[in-house]
Amino acid sequence: MLDLRWIRENPGEFDRALSRRGMKPLGAEILARDQQWRAVQTQAEQLQAERNKLSKEIGAAKAKGLDAAPILRQVAESKDEEARLEAEAARLRAAIDEALAPLPNVPSDDVPDGADESGNTLVREHGVPPSFTFPAKDHVALGEGLGMMDFARAGKLSGARFVVLSRALARLERALASFMLDLHTREFGYTEVAPPLLVRDETAFGTGQLPKFADDLFRTTTGLWLIPTAEVPLTNLAADTIFDEAQLPLRFTAATPCFRSEAGAAGKDTRGMIRQHQFQKVELVSIAHPDHAADEHERMTACAEEVLKRLGLPYRVMLLCAGDMGAAAQKTYDIEVWLPGQSAYREISSCSNCGEYQARRMKARFRPKDGKGTRFVHTLNGSALAVGRTLIALLENYQSANGTIAVPAVLQPYMGGIDTIGIDG
Q1: What DSSP letter does each residue of 219-239 carry, written as one string?
Q2: Which is it for the CA torsion 275, 281, 286, 291, positive or negative?
Q3: Identified catalytic residue from 347, 360, 367, 375
Q4: What is the C-alpha to C-alpha distance for residues 174 and 351, in angstroms, rounded to an integer?
Q5: Looking at 161, 171, 251, 260, which residue is catalytic?
Q6: How far from each other are the two terminal CA atoms of the chain, in whole angstroms?
Q7: Could you tell me if 355 and 363 are in contact, meaning their C-beta atoms sit under 8 angstroms apart?
Q8: Where in the chain is the domain with CATH 3.30.930.10?
Q9: 84 catalytic, yes or no?
């Protein structure tokens, strides 16, 4: 949620931020609503002040033995009118909040302009894509060739965009999640959490999924939402809370199933596991001091990169342009892993600094050590990593001519010591 006071004081910057997001200017409209709301509020406050004055007159009239009935009628009428004005002010403010709720965050100054992924900029590359002496297969051909990846059976069970993994590939998925969690908790100081997979409206609102992206979510018949990412429950652990400054930063991680309707992805990545309705992901969330959020963003991105480094997977880091970022983000790095089966880099992680955008929606604050008032925390989130896409990258980068898959050394302890996945797996 954007700060109404900031919009009031910086209407031009507000419109420029919307323009960078590909949206029309709304500054004049929001300011007109704001002016109307404040005018009604002022009228209500003036009536209260007048009524306080009348109350003193009642006492004076009674002391002189005069009839106070006319003044009492004025007070009663004033109360009724003030109640009406307060209700109108509340309605106007709710309308302003409703207008602000779907608006995206303001991009950071160092975020490049651009309408889509063509405007993203390369930050760095790591590793060299493998060179095979045979035609590289994609993960579908490899997984089905091993007899451990079944899209047809998943289709009978659930429909399109689902998969059944079995034997060594099912174990590999579990191994990847365990490896990532161990790395983030043991070496990077994240606290492991097992959060709910179903959340209320206000929880999804807090991180910005509602109201704008309701079509991208699955909703149960009881009104709860299946989480599209563990970012939603993890970030909301800070909701309606005032922390002491010394408690920051808080760092959480979780491995959870994620559920997405992919409403806007018709026709995209229909083959294989790239874009599924249900997938596993290890999420990182930080609740940070505003002064240290930028450094926390770099740190989080480095933690996600370290997973790929230890798995020996080539990747690159992209700084997303304003038009390609998620709505809640101020600044986002995408980490893209090399997939030989597509001869392309594909996103495997997004690490975003959301500033105070989510904190305002969740009412998450901290008390500075000087004890003067409270400030909004800054929230950050990142995938570290999307487990299914990491499995895809392993299959394609570690494939052999005979269709077997080498297991990276760091994963072998999680795989019972096996170093190769073959058709007998």
Answers
A1: E-TTS-EE-SSTHHHHHGGGT
A2: negative
A3: 347
A4: 23
A5: 260
A6: 50
A7: no
A8: 117-421
A9: no
Other C-beta atoms closer than 10 Å to the C-beta of 269 total 14
Determine whether 275 is an active site residue: yes
**Single-letter amino acid, residue 360:** R
CATH 1.10.287.40 in the chain is located at: 4-100
Cβ pair 330, 208 in contact under 8 A: no
CB 54 within 8 A of CB 74: yes
pLDDT in tens, the chain (425 residues): 899 999 999 999 999 999 999 999 999 999 999 999 999 989 988 887 776 666 666 665 555 566 556 666 666 666 778 888 889 999 999 999 999 999 999 999 999 999 999 999 999 999 999 999 999 999 999 999 999 999 999 999 999 999 999 999 999 999 999 999 999 999 999 999 999 999 999 999 999 999 999 999 999 999 999 999 999 999 999 999 999 999 999 999 999 999 999 866 666 777 899 999 999 999 999 999 999 999 999 999 999 999 999 999 999 999 999 999 999 999 999 999 999 999 999 999 999 999 999 999 999 999 999 878 999 999 999 999 999 999 999 999 999 999 999 999 999 999 999 999 996 65
- Whether the bond between 135 and the residue before it is cis, its omega within 30 degrees of 0, is no
350 is catalytic: yes
The C-alpha atoms of residue 337 and residue 349 are separated, in whole angstroms, by 9
**Using CB atoms within 10 A of its CB, is residue 397 exposed (0-12), middle (13-18) or buried (19+)?**
buried
As beta bridge partners, residue 50 has none
Inter-residue contact 146 to 400 (CB < 8 Å): no
CB 107 within 8 A of CB 322: yes
Catalytic site includes residue 260: yes
Counts of helices then strands in the chain (DSSP H, E):
12, 18
Contacts of 35 (CB under 8 A, 6+ apart): none
- Correct CATH for 4-100 of 3.40.1550.10, 1.10.287.40, 1.10.3720.10, 3.90.1150.10: 1.10.287.40
Q: Which of 93, 275, 316, 346 is catalytic?
A: 275
Alpha-carbon distance of 332 to 354, in angstroms, equals 9
Q: Among candidates 390, 393, 394, 388, which has minimal Cα distance to 420? A: 394
CB burial of residue 81 (10 Å; 0-12, 13-18, 19+): middle
CATH 3.40.50.2300 at 117-421, yes or no: no
> Which among 286, 350, 352, 383 is annotated as catalytic?
350
